[in-house]
Amino acid sequence: xxxxxxxxxxxxxxxxxxxxxxxxxxxxxxxxxxxxxxxxxxxxxxxxxxxxxxxxxxxxxxxxxxxxxxxxxxxxxxxxxxxxxxxxxxxxxxxxxxxxxxxxxxxxxxxxxxxxxxxxxxxxxxxxxxxxxxxxxxxxxxxxxxxxxxxxxxxxxxxxxxxxxxxxxxxxxxxxxxxxxxxxxxxxxxxxxxxxxxxxxxxxxxxxxxxxxxxxxxxxxxxxxxxxxxxxxxxxxxxxxxxxxxxxxxxxxxxxxxxxxxxxxxxxxxxxxxxxxxxxx
Length: 281
Hints:
single chain, mainly beta, CATH 2.40.50.140, 2 domains, globular
C-alpha cells in the first residue's frame, strides 16, 4: 500500500538546492552513520528517500512520532525517528508496530542532537513544493521487533561520550543490573539515574503510556533493576547546560525488577501490574 499527497498546511519552509537530480534511496545506516561532527548527519537539511525499517514504537504528541529500526544493523547506526506533522497525521495513523515502512522525499533534520526525518511538505521561500513525491509504503507487516542491544552504562554515560553513545541513537537497548539513583533530572525534570558501578546513564518514562505519571511506579530511588530496556534519545542544548542520552522505556515490560524487589514493592502498594500479568499468563 502506498500513500502520496500534496499538503496545503503544516508545511516546512527551507532553502534546498533541488536541481534535476532524483533523490537517492538511503538506508537508515547511511543517514545516521555519515556524520559531520560525530552527531549530525551529512544529509541534514536535505530531502532524501529512505529505505526504512521496522516500526518499533509509535508516540502521539504535538508531532506524532514513529521509531524505525533496521534489524540488519545490530552494530549501531540502525534506527531513526520520524516526525509526522501532516494535518491528518497520515503516516502515524496508518502504521503499526511490526510494519516495515519505507519513506520517499522526507526532510532530514538535526534537532537538539537527534537526527529526525520530517514527514511533511517542504516548500522554498516562494511557496514551491520541493518534495512532491512525499509518501510512504508499508512493504510488509507483522515483522518481529528487533531484539534489544545489551549495553553498559558506560556506553550511554552522563556526562556524555558522544563517540560511544551516538551509534545507539533511536535503537532499542537494554542495561542490566542497575540501581535507580537521583530523580528529577534533565530538561523536563523527568530523568533518573541508572547506576551501574561507577558509571551513570539516564532513563525516562515519557514514552511509556503505562507509567501513569511522570515516573513508572517501579522507578524508585534505591531500587535494583534486573534490567531496563528502551529507545535511546539524545538531548543537547548547550546554552541551557544539557547534553545527555536517555533510555526511554515503552511499557511496563521494559522494566524488570528481581523477584524479591517486586514482592517488596507490592507489599507497599506501589506495583501490582506486572505480578498480575504473570499470574494470568
